[in-house]
Automatic annotation (TrEMBL):
Residues of the Orotidine 5'-phosphate decarboxylase domain: 16-289
Reactions catalysed, as given in the entry: orotidine 5'-phosphate + H(+) = UMP + CO2
Gene Ontology MF, one: orotidine-5'-phosphate decarboxylase activity
Protein name as annotated: Orotidine 5'-phosphate decarboxylase
Biological pathway: Pyrimidine metabolism; UMP biosynthesis via de novo pathway; UMP from orotate: step 2/2
Positions of the catalytic residues: 106
Entry EC no(s): 4.1.1.23
HAMAP family: OMPdecase_type2 (MF_01215)
PROSITE patterns reported in the protein's UniProt record: OMPDECASE
Family statement: Belongs to the OMP decarboxylase family. Type 2 subfamily.
Keywords: Decarboxylase, Lyase, Pyrimidine biosynthesis
Keyword Lyase: yes
Length: 309
């Protein structure tokens, strides 16, 4: 099962964190941008190559520290088809370096469209009689708020080889405008979403005690993290909100079980922009990312009792 693969990597690295690869040009050292602008006349191509070079250098430095990376596709789409190619090449490079890759795509739509998204990001489209993966990520994020039409096409493609993380209680400040509203059953919308994913995951269980149907719950809401950990004991959590959004290890701690498993915590800007915090010119950006990733690992290990598994 894909969730077992993720748990194994977390135990191997003794690190339940994932690095969000969400680059924009302002995050990238000037030397990289100057080099790519000189080499490529098309500014979209230069931007995409800057993103890719930045990502690859960071991946090289953190591949032995973290179990996973999470590229957010919007940060690549904004640079056109060249940026989407950089997303694809980032995924491929991370997998070659042995990392578990979560494609943060947050797709959700009606049945036929959701199926097309699912095949594109999790499956293998038919290419004139030959099936090949377009974006070969290990897991993707899914928006459930169009109902089961938008979730089931993704869940059907898990098949033990892929995983989904369905939005439940997201880390942003305005999430409560909808997710905290109480339904006719007396549950909040985020509780209902989490409970439904626990049930959906019953047919996707791994040996680690979790299913290939996970949920997204923000570290910015630690009380809700703890409440959901009790409500959905077999559902793996993707936990954003660490670092730049204000969450820390203690905030994320309620997401974990007694083994230190059950969750993976994301930090994006806190790691990939670490070089900007000390007034650096950017020559050491990848090493700064590595140091930030190690600090995050130690923070999380500290609240988990020093050992995972």
């Amino acid at each position: 099962m894909s969730v077992d693969k993720l748990c194994e990597k977390i135990i191997e690295r003794q690190n339940p964190s994932v690095v969000g690869l969400d680059p924009v040009l302002s995050y990238i050292p000037q030397a990289i941008k100057d080099e790519m602008r000189a080499a490529h006349q098309n500014p979209f191509e230069a931007a995409a190559q800057s993103l890719l070079a930045f990502n690859q250098a960071i991946i090289d430095e953190i591949a032995d520290v973290v179990p996973a990376v999470k590229p957010q596709i919007a940060f690549y789409e904004m640079y056109g088809w060249q940026g989407v190619r950089a997303y694809h090449e980032t995924v491929e490079y991370a997998k070659k370096r042995g990392l578990y890759v979560i494609g943060d795509i947050k797709r959700g739509d009606i049945g036929s469209t959701a199926e097309a998204y699912a095949i594109g990001h999790m499956g293998r489209p038919d290419l004139f009689g030959e099936a090949r993966a377009a974006f070969d990520t290990d897991a993707v994020t899914v928006n459930p708020y169009l109902g089961s039409d938008g979730i089931l096409p993704f869940a059907r493609l898990c098949k033990g080889k892929k995983m989904i993380f369905v939005l439940a209680k997201t880390s942003n400040q305005s999430s409560g405008e909808y997710q905290d509203q109480v339904t006719t059953s007396g549950e909040t919308i985020y509780q209902l979403a989490a409970s439904n994913m626990e049930r959906l995951g019953e047919s996707h269980m791994g040996a680690c005690g979790y299913s290939d149907v996970g949920i997204v719950v923000g570290a910015t809401y630690p009380a809700m993290l703890g409440e959901l950990r009790e409500r959905v004991p077999h559902t793996f959590f993707l936990v954003p909100g660490y670092g730049a959004q204000g969450g820390g290890g203690a905030d994320a701690a309620p997401a974990f079980d007694s083994r230190g498993l059950g969750a993976i915590v994301n930090s994006s800007r806190g790691i990939i922009c670490a070089w900007q915090k000390g007034g650096s010119d950017g020559r050491d950006f990848a090493k700064a990312a590595r140091e930030a990733a190690i600090r995050m690992r130690e923070d999380l290990l500290g609240v988990l009792g020093g050992k995972i598994g």
